[in-house]
Amino acid sequence: MVAGVVQERPGGRRWRPVTHETWISIDVETSGPTPSTGSLLSIGACLVDRPEEGIELLLRPDPDLPWSDEAATVHHLDRAVLARDGMEPRAAMEALEAWVRRVAPAGSRPVLVALNAAFDWMFVADAFWRRLGRNPFGISALDIKALYLGRHLDEVGAWSETTRLRMLERYPVSLPHTHRALDDAQMQALLCREILAAARPDAGTGG
User: Fold this and answer.
1) Residue 206: inside a domain, yes or no?
2) Contact, 88 vs 40, CB < 8 A?
3) Residues 38 and 32 sit within 8 Å (Cβ to Cβ)
4) 179 is catalytic
5) Residue 114 pLDDT greater than 90, yes or no
6) DSSP letter (8 states) at residue 130
């Protein structure tokens, strides 16, 4: 993210990227609820300040891990097709790391941003450490649900009120939620931008 650049948003809102950090919206689709009970199947990632700059990776499922039919009704990914055409997990994580290095300027810290970040970060961190022995995002992530709750703490009184649908009622965005990883990462990026823009209505051009 570039310091000191103010971008106009629809409706007259403006948002200013955070200095010295590159916020990256990430969404994953999986075959189970945890890395030990399901495979990481797809990763979508894009820049929060430029959602059109993105990457999507389809991974080969781990044959030794369970496949949830319930999860499959959500992500609509075919196990046989992924087993045949999906990337080897190590190659996928190398590709994601290379993309992160390319889009994050020298000296800028990449920050994983997600909607229910605990879930997405858990799978991404596990895959990076398991396959590469490192994680460019470190041990933390920025949760859009928590960002929304903090922004509206005077009105939103419970975590259960931070669902995607409730947030979109207040901050409608132009992209749909499809359960395709890159689509959803881009939708999340727009939502994050709208929340930040509303929190900084008088953002100036200073660094």
Assistant:
1) no
2) no
3) yes
4) yes
5) yes
6) H
Give the whole-angstrom CA distance, residue 90 versus residue 96. Answer: 10
Instruction: Give the chain's domain count.
Output: 1
For the whole model, what pTM was predicted?
Answer: 0.86
pLDDT in tens, 24-48: 999 999 999 999 999 999 999 999 9
Q: Which of 75, 76, 152, 179 is catalytic?
A: 179
Q: Check residue 17 and report its DSSP letter.
A: P
* Amino acid code (one letter) for 50: R
User: What CATH number does residue 31 fall under?
Assistant: 3.30.420.10
Residue 66 in any domain: the answer is yes
* Spatial contact of 26 and 112, defined as CB atoms under 8 Å apart: yes
For residue 87, the 8-state DSSP code is B
Please state the length of the chain: 207
Tens digits of per-residue pLDDT, 51-92?
999 999 999 999 999 999 999 999 999 999 999 999 999 999
Domain membership of residue 122 (yes or no) is: yes
